[in-house]
Design a protein that fits this description.
- By secondary structure, this protein is an alpha+beta fold.
- Helices cover 50% and strands 19% of the residues.
- The protein has 9 helices and 13 strands.
- The longest helix has 70 residues, at 233-302.
Length: 354
Amino acid sequence: MIRVVDSNGKGRGGDGPSDITDIINRLKSGGGKGGGQSARPIILGIVIALLAWGVMTSFYTVQPEQRAVVKRFGDVIGISDPGLHFKLPFGIDETQFVATERVLKQEFGFRSQEVRQQGATQYSEREFDNESAMLTGDLNIINVEWVVQYRINDPIKFLYELREPTNTLRDISESVMRRVVGNRLGSEVLTVGRVDIQSQSREEIQQIMDRYDAGIHIITVELQDVVPPRAVQPAFNEVNEARQERERMINEAQKRVNQEIPRAEGEAIRTVAVAEGYATERVNRALGESVRFTAVLDEYRDAPEVTRSRLYLETLNEVLPTIGQVLVVQDDQVGPLPLLDVNRNRAPRTGGDE
C-alpha cells in the first residue's frame, strides 16, 4: 500500500494506481501548477534547439573549386560536386572538403609570405639551407630552390591512402631533386641543365606518387634560383663571366665565318663565270677568225695578185691612221713626193699626237 500525504499534511491510504493517477491529475489541475509551468519553456527550448540543430546539420555547400567526401558512421558513401547538398543530420553523415580544382604548390629552399598590391610576391628573409644545399656530381655545393605544383585528382585517395600526403610529397620531391642534381655536373646544373632537371624530376615524382596511389597529379616542377653558396659567389661570378666571354668570342667567330664563307663563295662563282665568259668569247673569236681566214684563203687561191694587193691596202688603211706623220720619199729626191702626200686629207688625231 502507498501512503500519499495531501497538501494539509494528512495522509490517506489507498491502493497504488488510484493514488498515482490522483497525483498526476493534481499536477495537471492545480496541486503542481507552478512546477508544470516552469518545465514547459525548458522542454520547448530543448525541442526547438534539437530542430534547429537537425536543420543546420542536414545540408552543406560545396564551393566551385572543391569536392566533398561524405561519410556515414565513418564509412565513405560518395563524393559531392559543387553546389548545395543534403545529408542525414545530427552527425550521422560527415563531410570533408578537398580543393580538387585548385593548383597547389610546395616551396623548397624559400617561402613566399604574401602578394603585394603591385602583383609582386614578398618572400621570407629566412634561409632554408637544409632544403636548398645540394652536392653535385663533381662534388660542388650549390643552392637549389624549386617549386612543385600539383593538383588533387582523387579526394578519397588523398584523404585515406596516406596518413600525411603533403609531407610525403615534400619528402619525395626533396629526395628526387637531390638525386637528379647529384648525378649532374655543377656547371650543367647552373647553366644548360635546368630544363632537363625539371622534366626528369616531375616524371619521377609522379611515378612514386602513383605507386603510393596518393591521388595527386604533379603539374610541373620549376627551378627558381640555382646559385652557388655565398662564400664562393665572387669566384663563381668570375668563372661565369669568363664562360660568357668565351661564348661571345665563339659567336663572333661564327658570325665572321657565316659572313666570309658566303662572300668567298660568291667571289669564286663570279670569277668562274667571268672566266667562262672570256673563254667563250675567245673561242668564238677564234672560230670567226678561222672562218675569215678560210674565206680569204679561198679568194687568194682564185686571184692571188688581187687578193695580195687588197690585203696590203687594207692593212695600210688600218695602220696609217694610228701613226703620226707619214712621208713617202725617194732616194734621189729631197722631201716627200708631191703626188703621194698621204697627210693632206687625213683628219687630225685626238689626244695631241701629230
